[in-house]
Amino acid sequence: RRVVHADTSNGTTNSTVGEAFRLCMNERLVNITSLVYVQEEDGYHARMGWSFEPYSSDVPVAFVDSSNENHIIAAVNCARNLGLGICPRGGGHSRIGSSMCRGVVIDVAQINDVQVSLDKSSATVGAGITAGELAYELFGQSNRLFPIGHNPSVGVVGFTLAGGLSEIANQLGLGCDSLREVHMVKADGSIIIANSSHNRDIFWASQGGGGGRFGIVYRMRLAIYDASPFNSFVGFSANISNSSIIPDYLSWAFGRTELQFNIVSRSKIFFPSKRDSVLELRGVCLNESSQGMCIEKLNRSGILRFPLTNLRFREGSSALDMLQYVATGSVSKSPEDFFVVGGEPHSEGRFQADREIVSALSFQMNQTAAPSRYYFEDFLSYTRVLCRSCTIITQNLGAGITRVNPRSTAIYGLRLATQWIALRAKERTQEQSQSVINQLR
Question: How far apart are CA 387 and CA 431, in angstroms?
Fold first, then answer.
């Protein structure tokens, strides 16, 4: 994390620096009421709990609740003049704690507008919009879709800048593939617009290179897509409870592509004991309207060759239902509850980082030569012995990463891969969790 901390070696404190920052902001803006929050002030403590994985050592000098780019410019200039680092915060969902720092946290959650173009090919969104809010707005306004992930409270801008892995990546690509333009405030307080014609290096880097590296993005333009192909689906869920079968399934799954069958799925592996593992499979058959048609498609794909237990189906008739089913395995009666209420920014924030550590890997391989069952058997045996509480998630990204040239975006490391796997460990302490993750990697 590229954060510059205030020098307090001369006896100054965060509260003293905070007052200097407040004074600077007051000189630059007409009214900073409900905008700047410094220590020992109403509202400061609440904002300490708006980030997902904050480090305990990160105690900001100030929070700035920006509602437009002028607020961001003023905050950047004042922070620079005082020698303070800055970090942007949208949904506050950073797993590596980058939504918090010891300098100035510039919160952009209030910049959450969505404007769909007249031809419905793109949407311009504010940096505070979350995945749930965007999905709900796009579908309601124009029957359009953007390839969001499974958590509705994740900020769309941070998601896209980091690459944007989605369950529907096979169909629509990664989130960063749909980025068309970014508006950002640079460290010198100037505004730049980057796209395929202007500031092309910044635009390339913004396509999967991570957020907050070159400036604070306050607005971006995204390509959006017709939701009709996703409005009819049959969801399915099942388990593989026989531990000895799971390595065979993984070897098979890592060597296939789902796009030709129009299936979306992800697998999650749990370890209930040192001897057992259970694979939970969940997905959807797209553009199908009956359980029988989905079974036929699953059979052709090869999934049904494995002994599945608790195989269940759920028919659906909207893209919103499909996104919710893939995320949770169920569909609520009111989409607004999941996408808007559940998509409220900062809704999963906390005051202290959790003991769960998450990491991810991508596999570079030829799909005709996937790892053998013995590779996965060895890995799962090792995981069962090592972990007290671990979860392994795998997803076939397929065409989501192979449809474009590997180096056309900044997430080129993943572009050279065909499979993605996430590792989650929750041990007794953060340090133990991190040690387990390092060994699993």
Answer: 13
Reduced to 3 states (helix: H, G, I; strand: E, B; else coil), residue 269 is strand
Q: What tens-digit pLDDT sequence spans the chain (441 residues)?
A: 334 344 444 445 667 899 999 999 999 998 888 999 999 888 999 999 998 878 888 899 999 999 999 999 999 999 999 999 999 999 888 877 888 999 999 999 999 999 999 999 999 999 999 999 999 999 999 999 999 988 999 999 999 999 898 888 888 989 999 999 999 999 999 999 999 999 999 999 999 988 878 899 999 999 999 999 999 999 999 999 999 999 999 988 887 766 667 888 889 999 988 888 999 999 999 999 999 999 999 999 899 999 999 999 999 999 999 999 998 999 988 899 999 999 998 888 888 778 888 887 776 666 567 788 999 999 999 999 898 889 998 877 766 776 777 788 888 666 666 677 888 898 888 889 989 999 988
Beta carbons of 182 and 214 less than 8 angstroms apart: no
pTM above 0.85? yes
At 160, which amino acid appears? T
Nearest alpha carbon to residue 113 among 178, 163, 157 = 157
Sign (positive or negative) of CA dihedral 322, 325, 331, 337: negative
**Integer Cα distance of 349 and 9 in angstroms:** 31
CA distance 209 to 86: 18
User: Which residue carries 């995204």 as its tokens?
Assistant: 222
